[in-house]
Records
---
Amino acid sequence: RMDIVKAAQYYTNRIAGDVSGMKVLLLDRETTPIISLVSTQSFLLSKEVYLVDRIENRQRDVMRHLKCVCFVRPTDASMQALVDELRSPRYGDYYIYVSNILKKSMVELLAENDESEVVREVQEFYADFYAATPHLFHMGLTPATHPLFGEGHSWNPGALSRTVQGLGAVLLALKRRPNIRYERNSAMALKLGQELEYLMAHEGSLFGGRGQGDGQTQLLILDRKNDPVTPLLTHWTYHAMLDELLGVVHGRIDLSQVADFRAEVKEVMLSQDQDSFFRQSQFLNFGDLGASIKEFVDSYQSKTQSHDKIESISDMKRFVEAYPEFRKLSGNVSKHVTLIGELSRLVSQRHLLAVSELEQSLACNEQHGADVKAVRALIGDAKIRAENKVRCVVLYALRYERAPGNATDELKRQLSASGVDADMVAMVDVVLRYAGARERQSDIFQNENIFSRGKNMFRGLQGTENVYTQHTPALGEMLEQLVRGRQGAHWQERLPSLDPNARPPSSESGMFNQDIIVFVVGGATLDEERAVAQLGARVAAQNVRIVLGGTSVHTSQSFLGELATTFFP
């Protein structure tokens, strides 16, 4: 199986379980979220881990009766923290596990400083990536920790190094040696592919010999600039809405800003392992989501012989609060009732149905006159938030960049006149500089399937009607064609291989017995994850497995924020 979470959990099980007896687990700044995404406190306790702390914390107590398991990234900072720890050890025995390939010089450094001879073991466990879901991983790059870009479309060296290490760890964890393909127009995708190829050749014994790929795995390195539309849209599936509207950071949602959430619950976890409702509902659209949670509440209601009328999400919240035992019985579902209630409130407060209707039209349909008019009306509407106005103008500017009568400059002036901050207005030019027509490899707006403009609403609960989902991520369409064996010559041209002797990416009869790892330089999105997961389910009979990775996982705000650091006028 290509299951990213299971691959990471294999290592967390080894880290917590290989050493018997009571122990302390020391993590660093980056391994803390890597572990917390795929493990729980109760699991660690079951393995006799009685204390989890940060290796950088110098205020820890001396407890020589405990063993110490350290799991850190092999960075200079973490190695220095280990050296400081070994010079004055607080615990009895040390078992040092690093999340990636350890340089010989680092092993020597540890040995030189282990004067008390407390180190029992040093091992490499390749959990050096963030396993967000079974189909999705990322490198956790943010402008604050690892800025992605150097100058223009080039790598910041620190981000490139972190990405090569992280992708290398994913391949080692999944035990794959892929044939690497990259988007022809992307210098960043080519550079990443070359560095990864060098790593696999240099560490041949780890990656299964110095030969070619394993024949079964393809790594497709894509560049976000070829599809700037997907991260700019409002998406209507549960996980994507939670991330866009409430913010999901390493599987956690901060609820301190949510007015009617119970005070004792400051944050909640989203975990497919621990939370069956989330596992089943992650890709449901908003209307179906309301119906699915209503079904659950209805079944409980029949058990309590309650005759409260449950028509809407606010009725459901009242019901959950009135029956505290229901809350205990189904902590997860009462959590989701509240989360869905908050999403519903934000959709209504921010008028996202109207915004999304225009976004979808701009993404999928060519109708210049009507679109200019609709964007002007949206900018003039005082009820629409500034960032949503800007996103629609960016989508307009991308679609009609080369159209006669292009009104981008006029729309930017209208944004300024309506009180939108100058830096936000400048994002229109930032995105064009990053992903305008001359930067993109294909015209994402030439959609062969002409979608009708008719509204396609899904009705689940009163007050939660979902707008259309006409737009399909370009990445999803590409994979569908590759797996089905369509337009083979086009993809051979667009996705060249680093290995000149490699077979074409797909044959006319389609793909069989293949593992595909898709990696997006510039960040993947949760809508692309949905496309990958759903395609994977459809082609399981061909024995094709697909996972998605990215330098980060973007919402519309984080996507624009990352570009602002580099492509600002």
---
Amino acid sequence: MLEFLKRPMVVTADINLHVVALTGVGLLSRLWHLTYPRAVVFDELYYGQYISFYMKRIFFVDDSGPPFGHMLLALGGYLGGFDGNFLWNRIGAEYTSNVPVWSLRLLPALAGALSVPMAYQIVSELQYSHCAAMGAALLVLIENALITQSRLMLLESPLIFFNLLAVLSYLKFFNSQKHSPFSLPWWFWLTLTGVACACAVGVKYMGVFTYLLVLGVAAVHAWQLIGDQTLSNVCAGVRLGGRGLSWGARGAETQVCVFCHLLSRAVALLVIPVVMYLLFFYVHLTLLYRSGPHDQIMSSPFQASLEGGLARITQGQPLEVAFGSQVTLRNVFGKPLPCWLHSHQNAYPMIYENGRGSSHQQQVTCYPFKDVNNWWIVKDPGRHELVVSNPPKPVRHGDVVQLVHGMTTRFLNTHDVAAPLSPHAQEISCYVDYNISMPAQNLWRLDIVNRESDRDSWKTILSEVRFVHVNTSAVLKLSGAHLPDWGFRQLEVVGERLARGHHESMLWNVEEHRYGKGQEQRERELELHAPTRADISRNLSFMARFSELQWRMLTLRTEDTEHKYSSTPLDWLTLDTNIAYWLHPRTSAQIHLVGNVVIWTSASLATAAYVLLFLWYLLRRRRRACDLPEDAWLRWLLAGGLCAGGWALNFLPFFLTEKTLFLYHYLPALTFQVLLLPIVLQHVGDHLCRSQLQRSLFSALVVAWYSSACRTSYTLRPLTYGDRSLSPGDLQALRWRESWDILIRK
């Protein structure tokens, strides 16, 4: 039993020294003087605010992407002991001593460094030569824009890392499929593919392009697997130990085997990414439990689930709204601004600017601020009292109510008069009796949209309700239009007569709520000014919070303004743009996001060459002229599908987007192009150069080209690291294109 103790234990390991060396130089290029400059550089201003929110556990919403990337940056701050106390107010602001700059920039730098050996491994897994793999890695190593972006507190570098990890993991899985399916390495690489895809999407929504790329390639391979006739023979041998088998039984066994392959891929590439995506939000919402500046765009239930803010105001409010309750009504839609149903003593003007007349009744609006004039009393039409009875009589779905404005005691009303800015809809007002032939029409039927049964009670915060006018069937709705100065620029509320469906602009929920006890108006006014108190807590489930937050992130539209350094996708191809990231306050040292012109131009030409060669070979094969051996053709297809396909999926969608774009949006697509470049060069040398002389001349040209790329990288180094002061003449010499904005002090 103890025989193994008598023998020496030997562990053998295969270490690729090229991968080790590439990792070392990658770390050196990305980590060298990482704390310089010790100042806010470009979008560090943007991401730094969110890191501070994480450190202080303050909730925020960022529509640029899911929270995983932000959490990675915050992890660096946490490991460095950052307390979140720094004012992120301007680019170039010096970091204070409590900001761990090295730690905050570490994870993006590590991601950039590890992308170098991964480029080598991807080309190797595509079955191309060691020289091609080294070429891809060295191009990633010296590309100036990739170096700059990975040395700062930004998310493009982690995104590229997970993109490459997803592709590398899938290639390793695909190659292990050939000789050891369902082995431990096979499962490891398949699972890691799904994990990497989830992380790429979790860093930025752009990661979904690479996820779709991997799913597309995996779907093609799965389709080929279904038609693989050798699969049935292997399965039959394993199951029956080589005994005879009828054709029908063998067919059944094939289905089981193929089903296992498809099921494993579905779990790894579909289920695992979804679970991990949910996990990112679960951690995000668990960490950020305090109220913050972005609460207002969330619903009242969501706000009430956060510590402080609305939760502090509404904690323990009565759950069920009763006749006599005092409530504030928040519009669920919240666009263009979150607002509350509001009224004040001012009346609508007798004649509008366009000549139309109004009812001259008291104005009703939607007001985007907390105010005592937002309070309303839910009145039972059959009772005169404006207090809650004992015991309270809850308001239920389908009940008819009257809404009394708390401060003016006038009833919410509508009638056949056009709204001021929406003439197709009815005016909403608080009724003033002018002793004319316009009787009050102030009865509203309560419609609880998210009810579970037709006898559900109206619940504080949780219920989303419509108010349907009994006389005209108009629905109380936020139009979103800003009233003129006579309406104090508040938002228009109308009665929509042709209401179809349950659009959120017609939905309202009770945010603040108390049981009214004051019999006299003076007593009620004192109650309305007093803070609310009660005893019922309400916590949303994780899935409810996730669904709302995800929807807000996808539909939130920030105002995109033209930026000095914004650019178009066509500018990226020709490198006609750059971004000035940072300028030293006293010297001319500066950091720019600018690409290596030789690499960018060559990568674009290589992509065009691949497409042309692919079409040529395809036409030739259609005519039964196979210029490439079958294994070389399959390698060429897979390399193009992943590299050229990765470039197209990460680049072409930007032609359809309306948001402001910058040069760094092209970096994920550029990385795939860089991987394709040495593959095309090897293909030309192996298959298009017919003689040894041609191959020798081509190799010499490749060496000269790579030397020029290295020379260009070194020349642009002062703009990449920003560690050297340059004279006006030096800066002018670095302005290789007229469109480049190189900052020259006068």
---
Amino acid sequence: MRTSYQWLAVLRAGNAEEILATSSVGSAQVMDSMINLFVKWPANRTILEYMEAIIQAQMLPLHVYFSVFLRSIRQGVLVDSRSLDMLCRLGIQLVSELPLSPVLSMVEPVESPSATLLDALTLLREGLHRPYSTLHDLQTSSSDVLLIVIQYCPSMVPQFSPGDAIQILTVSHEIMQHPTLRPDLLSALESMNRLLGDNLSVPNPLPTAGSEMLSLGIPPRSDINAEDASEMTSCSLFLWSIVDCRAHPYGCGNTERTLAVLLGLYRWNGVALPNFCAELIRAAVLHYLEAFQLKDIEPTLASNWSSFVYGRLPDLLLQFLENAGSTQHQPIMESAMTIVLEKVARQLDFVLPFQSTMDIDDGSEAESNPSLFRTRFLHALVKRDLLSPFMAKVLYNDWKEDGALPSVLLQDSTGSIEEVVERLLLSGPEEQRQVLALFLKDYDQQGEFAKTLHKRFEELTESLDLFSVASICEALVNYLAVFDVLALYIPIPQLLQRLLVLVDNLDWEDIDDPQMAMTPLGTVILFLQSIIGRYNLEPTALESKEKSISAEYLIQAGSVESVSSLSSDEEAVYNDWHRALFDVTCDGVEDSLVRSRNPKILLKLAPVLMSEAISKCRSPGAGQDELASLRNGINYLQEPLLNWTL
């Protein structure tokens, strides 16, 4: 540090201290120069020491350091992960050492506070997608920097422009979907988003609210074009996030939160309700067309967007209009669809191949025909009374009121979705697969089927009907494309919470045949692990303080490596199971052993049991007895009774 202090002495001798202290522009130029040096010599500790010295000497304000450092990321100047982590850690250190120095400043700022906040969000998003390093943990340091910046924001949010606010909300929402985000940061982002939402909201978002919108800095309605790129982008990003992260707490299955964000976007845009609905539908159609082009590579993606456009989107539009205060839905949707069909006409005709009647009779998918795409979507709107049959005919001349495709899901029933769900519960694997295949094709009935299945699921878990629940889980885990679509309609975290409650609350002492119940228990546990892994769900998303449940034991299965790491209670259970599985003189697994403790503990114990048995075979002096013991345990663990534990 001696050289850095000598440098400070030179600066003071040249009267630079007074110049830097009175000019943010001069300070920013000095900081820019030091960043450029850091770019040429990445992760150079000497340059970092110079930065630390000039800030501690209060010759360069702390807010200038953060503004310029974070701005350089946006400008693409700083890209080295080591350098970014070192600058983050220096900023965190300086904040603790200089508690009276502000991180953001409204007085002569280098960058606006909203721009610095957006830069900090961008840094974290970048850190979350970079490989983890124990030496330079950018994820942790960038999270800490964002927390620091957020702490200074509440008093400055009213000064944020609407454009900056919506950008912040969009990036923040994307970051909140990341499975490894820290709970404290998630909470801080939620609070900030509510504050931004309150700041953007107006009491009456309809055309009569012009004065309130102007007070927020939003241009008058006459200055807003329906083709505004920011409006289209915000709708597109929002739809992508709720469909891509459909199974997460903020995903499409959570109707309440989805509608809340939709209302916030609408109120910020300040456009007429038909224009907003038009841009929302247009964004969804463009996502669908993009997925259709990739259908041979990612068939599940095309299936998800087909289900969203034909089934989930019309439901959301109806609920959104009701929450937005609309009393006349049809005139609004008539105007919206007029705009949509005009704007997407070329894309539909370009992406979706032409099909003749002969092609369709040969079994080609109806949604791959531009004409049938239009008619099917209009039928979905007419079914929900969002359009009149007359207006649907006006919008598309080939539309016919009796032209709706028949329900393939109800074709073998009396017309009741409840009957279809019961058939699913009582059928064998092959018939279950047939029902679920029909579910994927029947967009009109998907929403009702999903809600009915969810309700039935709740009833079965409430009554602790393990065998019926396991039957549904087995059908779904073997056909995960169906679960992807179900996640568009129902809140998956709530469904998984119910399964966790079922596993925890089973009374093994009252079960007539506990060993027979072990197999369906394994099915439920494997289903839980499969869904958590498929959607990268964090344990915190499944926790419930009211019900005292946790999914940690599912995610940490296999993490225990030795008997010494077990608690005394767990070690006693371990000894009982070791004797039952690996002692060739023992009679095997007794009912009393299964009843003594919830078998879910075997997720923790089984890997240790195997590891210890293998270790004994490798130890000096091991012989036929140890090998026979290992084989005995392996045979047990390969049976349906216990094969789910490994």
---
Amino acid sequence: MIVKVENTFKPTGSDRCMATPLLRATLIRNVRLAASAAARASPRPTRPSVSALRQHIPSKQLFTWTKKERTEKPQEEAHLLCPTMSESPHPDIRARAQRVAAIAPCPVCLDTHSQRRHVAFECPDCGWPTHCSELHWSEDPEHAKYCSRLREVNEDEHDIRSGRDVPELNFPGMQAYDEAVSFSNWDIFWFTRGFKSINTERSRRLASKMLTYPITIASVLHEHSGLTHRNQRITPEGLRSLTALRSSLHTAGNVELTSLEKAEKKPIRIFILGARSESNLPPDIWNQIGYLFPSCVVQIYLIGPQVSLPRNAKRPPPDVDMDGNGQASHVHEPQPVLPLNSSVKRTTDLLHVYGVPSYTTSAGMNVSIYGLEAYYHQVHAQFAPFDPYTDVFFAFSPGFGFPSATSPPLTQMASPTEWGQDIPMILDTKCPLFVTGFSPTDVERDVRSLDGVEGVSGEFDWILTPGINPFGSEKWEVAEFDPRVMVKTNWGIWGIRGKRRDIRQGGKGKEEEEDEDDFEGRYVKT
């Protein structure tokens, strides 16, 4: 605002000389005082708020015109990923909640009142049925210790079924011949293998759960394995066995084979014993083994009474027990198992080949999958002869040390109807056997079960000492019989092989197998 101040003092000619600097300063001061008074009297303009200013900021700033607008699907809200299991929109999760409520005991009733009452109240924080009532849920001080893990599992299960894009499961294809893969841990493997960036913990858990079975196998057999003699995981005997296998897995150039070379090359046979959930993986997951070993033909045999089969798989007639009058007294029906993954489109029935319900399918250019619903000792003779250079056995969490279902006083390792017949046969082949466990207790229990078993105790050499598996799943798995029990698939791994013995004749030592020089000469190729 401009304020005009009229000067009423008009000096005469004699007075002009009196317009001293003091008068001039007085006039200027009066003008400034009047201007400030007028400014205080006028209304002050309001300052716009920060939110109002933000509305006028353009959405694209400088140098952002070259970037494409993202059209990503928004992430699910936390409360949508963690509902109570009985109110889940997915039928299989609701069915699991019913199974937990039917067998899991209330921890407060069991520990405090020495009563066994099934859980019926679902925790509002994690969504799992954990106690018999809200009162016992509020009185349990231990629940807070594992509630966050249960919530994590609940969110993961709903996230898998949410229908979102899953970029972490877009696996790379063939590895370039001049790019080395490192098997130190998950992060280095994903980086050197060329996986897309995995930026969230949930994505890590999902990717590690899907890949833990094939990458555990590859991490043991590959020449760049993180399990070495230097870190005291591989024993001298184990180094000999793995060197023999690697001589067949890695050839000069390590390049993909032609059709004629595949037909002439002896296949690498990987026997997975007691297969359960691993038999239901999509074939693309198993094909990662083929990408890591492009210069060989891989045959993966999934053997066990709980192997998943195609819905139209042929089965032999059921076994029938006859009574004294020649009448059927009992019919042995096969146990229901999870059907084969729907992603498997083309399968070939092999009942006429192995005599048990079985199938085969192709997982890739150099990987074939065979599924046999049988105990291993029922089909062992059909795979003979065995070669330590091309054959290897794996058992993922087999439960050697758990009580036998058919012979309760014995462990499954000692039971003649379970692992009691299988392991001695495997040791006789002199081929490596690698075993995983879901926790330190499980690994120790399985190792201890080997002692005192006829045909096993004292008949094997250690090739891989018990320890952590760097490629175990990072996702927690909750036991339905007690939600407080949580484990991680393939947490640990160890390995054994049938013992090699010397036979002495005429005072001179003669090995039953080839001597060390001949053994090394077989796998050193030029």
